[in-house]
Structure to design on (399 residues):
């Protein structure tokens, strides 16, 4: 019942989400304050979470996912009253969007399911509070290193210990863009001095990345919420592995390599570092340091040819991957733009890597041009942004 009604509602997702938030804010005006000014990314997230629940109904991991989601929702100050209000607005939105597919049985199934989801999320939140975990961590910016026009490496010092695993990401909020939270991968294994590193690429129109790259500086305080993410799997000692990253996807791979350099310096594997142009290989210095410490790691840098579109680098990467062998024996760790992850994971499966050996985060799509056009018609409808080529802008400089 849940799946069949969701299939109808999903086809009218845009309509359902608009109805949902209008209903929620009309009936609970005070709740508007809890959400960011720009609701567009929020709208996508609601359906992403619902889709996850509906597609994982029988999965044993669902309860844990919801417990984590509830734990993470403490940063939104989500109270039991908010959960109840969301439940009744969701019900109204679904009834509206499902049309003839809505029935008394459907309503009963959805309200029972939602009750169950809310209970598991609230239990996750309570458990974290009982364990003394803060709803968020305040972290001071201690260094802001800018690479060229649109990339920054931030060093943060959380005011309380911030436990995490290498490869995880963290949700970040800044008072410059109230109530907006965006995830960034932590770019190192836990450090003795407790500082953290984030790599931020400014996305055109992205409010948070613009604030972090252009406006934030040392002395400013950011908020961090519970770490999470899908790059926490580990290869057994002695096992083969391949790391593939694009752009600031270098961040989590750097954390994984930092951990491996400490725990397994004899590891055997390959690393592919992809960037839109040579000047965008901002992590090259670190890569070379890892190459010195990890004898068994082969490193390949791949960029687009000068003057070519940035995703030519992906095509070049796929050619290199096809030229490599033994894919069935490798664990693969992938990080980069959402379209990149999908495309590379598909090719890896063709080459013989088992899907459960391909590890990556599930990223929400960002911006307008996140899906690479496949046909001439798609290219015409969604042309890529112009390539602004400015090599000299990429030299690192301290603020
Ligand atoms: N844990 C993870 O998976 C992480 C993911 N990211 C994501 O990586 C991106 C980083 O952005 P930038 O550094 O500006 O990278 P970028 O926009 O410079 O892209 C780097 C390379 O990725 C490939 N690429 C980009 N979009 C693609 C698409 N739609 N299809 C196929 N290939 C594509 C191209 O080869 C490009 O040269 C962000 O979207 C961010 O969300 C960043 C950090 C960690």
């Amino acid at each position: 019942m849940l799946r069949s009604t969701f299939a109808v509602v999903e086809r009218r997702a845009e309509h359902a989400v608009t109805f949902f938030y209008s209903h929620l804010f009309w009936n609970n005006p005070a709740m508007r304050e809890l959400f960011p000014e720009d609701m567009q990314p929020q709208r996508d997230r609601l359906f992403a979470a619902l889709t996850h629940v509906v597609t994982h109904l029988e999965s044993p991991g669902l309860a844990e996912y919801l417990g984590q989601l509830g734990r993470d929702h403490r940063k939104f100050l989500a109270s039991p009253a908010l959960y109840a209000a969301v439940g009744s607005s969701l019900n109204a939105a679904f009834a509206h969007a499902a049309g003839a597919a809505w029935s008394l049985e459907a309503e009963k199934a959805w309200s029972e399911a939602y009750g169950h989801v809310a209970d598991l999320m609230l239990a996750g939140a309570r458990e974290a509070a009982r364990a003394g975990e803060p709803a968020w961590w305040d972290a001071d910016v201690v260094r802001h290193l800018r690479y060229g026009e649109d990339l920054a490496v931030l060093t943060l010092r959380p005011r309380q210990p911030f436990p995490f695993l290498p490869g995880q990401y963290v949700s970040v909020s800044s008072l410059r863009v109230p109530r907006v939270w965006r995830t960034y991968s932590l770019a190192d294994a836990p450090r003795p001095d407790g500082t953290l590193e984030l790599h931020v690429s400014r996305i055109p129109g992205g409010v948070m990345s613009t604030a972090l790259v252009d406006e934030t500086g040392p002395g400013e305080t950011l908020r961090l919420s519970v770490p999470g993410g899908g790059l926490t799997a580990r290869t057994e000692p002695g096992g083969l592995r391949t790391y593939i990253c694009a752009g600031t996807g270098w961040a989590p791979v750097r954390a994984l390599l930092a951990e491996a350099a400490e725990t397994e310096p004899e590891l055997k594997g390959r690393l592919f570092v992809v960037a839109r142009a040579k000047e965008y290989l901002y992590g090259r210095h670190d890569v070379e340091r890892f190459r010195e410490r990890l004898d068994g790691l082969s490193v390949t840098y791949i960029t687009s040819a000068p003057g070519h579109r940035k995703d030519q680098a992906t095509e070049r990467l796929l050619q290199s991957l096809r030229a490599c062998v033994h894919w069935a024996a490798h664990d693969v760790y992938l990080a980069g733009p959402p379209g990149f992850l999908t495309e590379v994971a598909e090719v890896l499966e063709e080459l013989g890597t088992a899907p459960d050996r391909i590890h990556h985060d599930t990223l929400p799509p960002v911006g307008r041009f996140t899906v690479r056009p496949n046909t001439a018609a798609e290219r015409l409808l969604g042309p890529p942004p112009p390539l602004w080529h400015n090599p000299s802008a990429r030299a690192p400089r301290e603020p």
About this structure: The domain at 137-224 is CATH 2.40.30.10 (Elongation Factor Tu (Ef-tu); domain 3). The CA atoms of residues 141 and 175 lie 13 Å apart. The longest strand covers residues 137-147.
